[in-house]
Amino acid sequence: MLNDREIAELLQRAAADLHPAVDVLVSRAERQGRRRRRWRIAGIAGGNALAVMAVAALAYTASSYQPSVPARPVPGLAAGASSSSRPAPKPTPGPTPGTTPSSGKSAPSQHPMTQRQMLRLLRSLLPAGSSLSIVPPPYGATGRGSLEVDYNDGQGEADIMLDVTAFTTVSTTPTSSAVIPLTCPHPLWTNEGTRPAGALPISCQVRHVPGIGLERDAVMYADSFGFYGINIYLYRADHTEVFIQVGNGYFDPALPHVDRARPPGSMALWEAVVQNPAWHA
């Protein structure tokens, strides 16, 4: 039987893992809010059962998909919006089982990137000759560290969302006490609607990128409109999270339009974009 001292120590250890990552919570809340707003407008504009089903599918995805989830997004994708008022992340007392070990470095001290800075860097990393323009409010991202653009490589328009934020601890174990789980579902997602002919197959993998950090690469399921995309999360050793999602179409202004069977570029291209060290939170 445990004595009083042992019980007190046990409670202290349990409480030590309860530090909420407020910056992450704020980021995810803003992201989900933008996404829900987009689909609420879609439901009003559609005025039919299909739009209602899309809203219901979004609500399910937002509540069950981790580490969740984007703005004006490819439905079923996750993304990270930032907030200019985001408080600094609280440090954790140490890694827990199933989490990435701490590098001993604090979160980056630089100011979050502006949208113009993000746009310039993103443009420099993409093939020449393509067009790239910021999606303005109310549908586009707002604040530093978050960007949404319309991209066209000459083969059709695509919606791209990019977020750069700070984080504390990442877990590869769903039951871990770490605040950010980074896992793939088993079994993988299933399509809500008809996947376009020639679409990339649904896939997901979590991997350690040597010298960089922990990354999840996924091709998401198609929503009821046939909309899907490439979705990549990278958690760097310097506590910077970089997220990108690249769709197979665009929004005009709220309804999704499938413009191509596959998102532009390749998984390798978008991995290289996410892994560029110039992104900072």
Q: Could you explain the architecture of this structure?
A:
The protein has 281 residues and is an alpha+beta fold. Helix content is 26%, strand content 22%. The strands form 3 sheets. The chain has a 7-stranded antiparallel β-sheet with strand order 1-2-3-9-8-7-6, with helices on both faces. Strands 4-5 form a two-stranded parallel ribbon. Strand 8 and strand 9 form a beta hairpin. It is globular and about 60 Å long.
What are the key terms here?
281 residues, alpha+beta, 7-stranded antiparallel β-sheet, two-stranded parallel sheet, 5 helices, 22% strand
Quick structural overview:
By secondary structure, the chain is α+β, with helices and mostly antiparallel strands.
What is the 3D shape? globular
- Number of H/I helices: 5
Structural class: alpha+beta
Q: Mean of residue pLDDT?
A: 73
Question: Could you tell me how far the N terminus lies from the C terminus, measured between alpha carbons in angstroms?
Answer: 48 Å
Tell me the strand order in the biggest sheet: 1-2-3-9-8-7-6
Series of secondary-structure elements, N-terminal to C-terminal: HHHHEEEEEEEEEEEH
Major sheet characteristics:
7 strands, antiparallel
In helices, the fraction of residues equals: 25-40%
Radius of gyration: 19 Å
β-strand number: 11
Draw up the topology in text.
Layout: H1 4-16, H2 22-46, H3 49-64, H4 115-125, E1 131-134, E2 146-152, E3 157-166, E4 170-171, E5 180-181, E6 203-209, E7 213-219, E8 229-236, E9 240-247, E10 249-251, E11 256-258, H5 267-275
Parallel strand pairs: 4-5
Antiparallel strand pairs: 1-2, 2-3, 3-9, 6-7, 7-8, 8-9, 10-11
Helix pairs in contact: 2-3
